[in-house]
Amino acid sequence: MSKYRQMADFLLNCENLLLTAHHDPDADCIGSMLGLYHVAQGAKHGWTMVLEDKIPANLQYLPGSENIICPADIVAQPQHVLFLDCGEVSRVSRGWLNAYLNLPFYCIDHHVSNSFSGVLSLLEQNASSTGEIVAAMCDAAEIALNIEAATSLYTAIVSDTGCFRYENTTPRALEIAAKLLRQGVDMEKARVQLFESRSAAGMVMLQIAFRNMCFTAQDRICYSFVSYADAKAVQATASDLNNIANYTLLRAGVKIGVLFEEYEHSVAVSLRSRQGLRMDKLAQSLGGGGHIRAAGCLIEGNLDAVLPQVLDKALAMILEEQ
Ligand SMILES: [Mn+2]
Q1: Looking at the predicted structure, is the pLDDT value of residue 199 above 80?
Q2: Is residue 177 scored above 90 in pLDDT?
Q3: What's the domain count of the chain?
Q4: What distance in angstroms lies between residue 157's CA and the mean position of ligand 1's atoms?
Q5: pTM of the prediction?
Q6: Most exposed of 7, 87, 103, 296 (fewest Cβ within 10 Å)?
Q7: Helix (H) or strand (E) holding 205
Q8: pLDDT band for position 190 (cuts 50, 70, 90)
Q9: If you measure from the C-alpha of residue 116 to the centroid of ligand 1, how many angstroms do you get, rounded to a whole number?
Q10: How far away, in angstroms, is 218 Cα from ligand 1 center?
């Protein structure tokens, strides 16, 4: 039996599943979760969708997003746990998952750095998104998609491919997206919600990130930062900084882009690269993870402490490559 079939059989017959994904959830986390929930009629089977952080405002249009709850509101006793778009407990939970660690774990994910070891998983590093894997599984298992599922999964793919611009936009990703569109998905709405719906605070964060851009290593590294004070001044949250890291690669010749987001006691570091420079490895060496060209980590300390630490490693990687 194929892995798709195995996973589909498990999910379609699964009662009381707890679905969750990494904190600061993106459209792939939420879209793949909702897609699966709609496909398998999760509501009828006592499924509980749990995310630690709030759903970003621009993703609240996804059908069923109002059914995603925070850990404190879990009432049902789950019997299984499914991780989506994430393989590590530490990226999912800042503690609440401890109550469920004795349950069987499952996983669907596309991160290179996934080190999941559970009962059953679909791990595809070449998939554009977790949403693509869920859609491929449904296709292989001949599970019909409704419009709610198609909208959710399409949004997941559009988000993780940067609107079909990144190199993870494989022929399969496009074929699956085409099938989803045929279900009647509103593609204009998905694009606007994902890429043209910044909050007022998000615009300020963008302005600050552009203003703070610095170039080093003979302009091969671009970095920028948003201080805790700047974010606090406009009450920006993590989702207001979404997609800003990508702009660190805007200038010709930049090979590594880094965005530093300072929080009260830590700094979130987003890493981007061109030409195969392994950001997943760089992130791992700093305690994080991710994809080859887009990865990240969270480091204790303030900007002054974290910035040189990361830039030294980025520079070493560039020098090594020469
Ligand atoms: Mn993803």
Answers
A1: yes
A2: yes
A3: 2
A4: 8
A5: 0.88
A6: 103
A7: helix 200-211
A8: very high
A9: 15
A10: 32
